[in-house]
Design a protein that fits this description.
Elements (H helix, E strand, L loop, with lengths): L21 H22 L7 E5 L5 H10 L4 E6 L11 E5 L11 E7 L8 H10 L1 E13 L6 E3 L3 H20 L6 H11 L3 E8 L2 E3 L3 H12 L1 H6 L4 H10 L6 E3 L2 E8 L5
Parallel strand pairs: 1-2, 1-4, 2-3, 4-5
Antiparallel strand pairs: 5-10, 6-9, 7-10, 8-9
């Protein structure tokens, strides 16, 4: 996820790569999201020689995979406000900056924006600019969570565990909304992409369950550490958070992830 620099929190982003917990959070995100994104990119025909931009590259796990897929002859540009975790590569360019204020190099065969647009009040303007950086026939892949769907507890160890998880979600999402995030944007991405002029627009919607101590549970635990101050401001106590983190490691817990909407569209080959 695109995050802020060490200089301060940027409106529109919920997390900060400069925190001690950020490396863990980004690793968990990659483990959860990369398999589905890789599958979709393979389905759209990602091939050697392609020029691809990874927006909100985070830990760079997708960037590294893209680098391998487009070699030889292809190139990957990884964009993040704080790209400290993105590995270098012979066919990788890393750019630090806010996508709202950057001009991307044109004629890209694919652009991936994962967990980015849901956080930006200017999302439709950014969407149009991303489309403009595509080559004719190029593919835009927009992936965001639908965080309005919160029926995620498949099995809970106790009523208390359920209460803590629900309070955590309510407080975290309220914080995101206060910074301009749209928790239901993913559902409207197809319409916005069609309105922008993309064609062959299609959405892939998926989720899966994770036991305590794995996947989404580890991500929630990490998020509770990164945004502890905001959760305390929302009324949770330090004791609540310590207990929540224990619950999220409990193998008796079974949580679904948020619904991930990955929407794909192509730039027309003719005006």
């Amino acid at each position: 996820m695109t995050t802020t620099t060490a200089g301060g929190q940027t409106a529109g982003y919920m997390f900060d790569n400069a925190t001690d917990e950020a490396k863990n959070q980004l690793r968990h995100l990659g483990e959860i999201l990369d398999p589905g994104t890789r599958r979709i990119l393979t389905e759209i025909g990602l091939a050697p020689g392609w020029r691809v931009t990874d927006v909100g590259a985070g830990a760079g796990t997708l960037t590294a995979w893209l680098s391998d897929q487009v070699a030889p002859g292809g190139h990957v540009t990884a964009v993040d406000l704080d790209p400290r975790y993105i590995p270098a590569g012979p066919n990788v360019t890393v750019r630090a900056g806010d996508i709202r204020q950057m001009e991307l190099e044109g004629s890209q065969q694919a652009i991936v924006a994962r967990l980015v647009l849901m956080h930006l009040p200017e999302r439709e303007q950014v969407l149009a600019e991303l489309m403009g950086a595509l080559a004719p026939g190029g593919v835009l892949v927009v992936a965001d969570w639908d965080c309005t769907w919160l029926d995620m507890i498949r099995r809970s160890p106790s009523r208390r565990a359920t209460e803590l998880i629900e309070r955590f979600h309510d407080a975290l999402l309220a914080f995101g909304e206060s910074r301009g995030a749209d928790m239901g944007w993913a559902k409207r991405a197809p319409e916005a992409m069609l309105r922008a002029g993309l064609v062959d627009v299609d959405s892939h919607i998926e989720s899966r369950s994770w036991r305590g101590g794995t996947g989404i549970c580890l991500l929630h635990r990490s998020n509770s550490i990164q945004r502890e101050a905001q959760l305390l401001d929302a009324g949770m106590t330090r004791e609540d958070l310590a207990e929540l983190r224990e619950v999220l490691m409990d193998p008796e817990l079974l949580l679904s992830g948020y619904l991930m909407h990955t929407t794909v569209g192509r730039r027309p080959t003719k005006a």
